């Protein structure tokens, strides 16, 4: 197969549009996953069964359901009962919600890893429950979970092409559409290289961060 640079040049405007969509989905989806995951983790430690059990059931259901099914549900079913959302908004919410159930487990492991003595010390100092979480437990727990949370960012990047199935064309979605229109493969190759260029340095950064935090 001969490589056609003119095809690549024609594809580049759409490629950058796809990059923007991918980065938006990744950045906002990550914020949702990290914030909501912490909420799930803390709710699962609640002493109130009416809080703990429903949250556990919801997170288990989401974690054990394919992301693609969840995206279809959010985009095609939810609007029948409420306001409709754009494909990109739906994709961002879907990614964030799906990965929040995984980050919840990471947070839970980090919280469980805080020595019991830290809880006892906070009690001895008569710290309120809220201050115990803010000043003692969460700072230690989050330090432990930063590297595994970073791994889920990379995983979310690799799953982001799924949002193209509901019309939010990320890099891969744009490449597939362009390839179908022009009967070429250069666009798909460019996007494949782009994912490597983004994901591999991110993986190296996560490893370096992990080594630094475990010192």
UniProtKB/TrEMBL annotation:
Segments traversing the membrane: 20-41, 187-209
Membrane-protein topology: Multi-pass membrane protein
Alphabetized Gene3D superfamilies for the sequence: MetI-like
Superkingdom of the organism of origin: Bacteria
One Pfam entry name: BPD_transp_1
ABC transmembrane type-1 domain ranges (all copies): 15-206
Localisation: Cell membrane
Keywords: Amino-acid transport, Cell membrane, Membrane, Transmembrane, Transmembrane helix, Transport
Family membership noted in the UniProt record: Belongs to the binding-protein-dependent transport system permease family.
Protein name (Swiss-Prot/TrEMBL): Ectoine/hydroxyectoine ABC transporter permease subunit EhuD
């Amino acid at each position: 197969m001969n490589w056609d640079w003119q095809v690549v040049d024609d594809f580049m405007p759409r490629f950058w549009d796809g990059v923007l969509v991918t980065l938006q989905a990744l950045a906002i989806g990550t914020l949702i996953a990290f914030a909501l995951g912490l909420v799930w983790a803390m709710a699962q430690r609640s002493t109130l069964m009416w809080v703990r059990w429903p949250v556990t059931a919801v997170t288990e259901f989401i974690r054990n359901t394919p992301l693609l099914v969840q995206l279809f549900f959010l985009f095609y079913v939810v609007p029948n009962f409420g306001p409709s959302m754009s494909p990109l908004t739906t994709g961002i919410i879907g990614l964030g919600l799906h990965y929040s159930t995984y980050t919840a487990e990471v947070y839970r492991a980090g919280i469980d890893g805080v020595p019991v003595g830290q809880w006892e010390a906070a009690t001895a100092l008569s710290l309120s429950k809220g201050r115990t979480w803010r000043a003692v437990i969460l700072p230690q727990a989050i330090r432990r979970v930063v590297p595994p949370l970073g791994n889920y960012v990379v995983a979310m990047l690799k799953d982001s092409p799924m949002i193209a199935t509901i019309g939010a064309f990320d890099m891969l979605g744009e490449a597939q559409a362009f390839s179908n229109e022009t009967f070429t493969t250069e666009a798909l190759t460019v996007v494949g290289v782009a994912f490597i260029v983004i994901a591999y340095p991110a993986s190296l950064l996560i490893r370096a961060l992990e080594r630094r935090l475990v010192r």
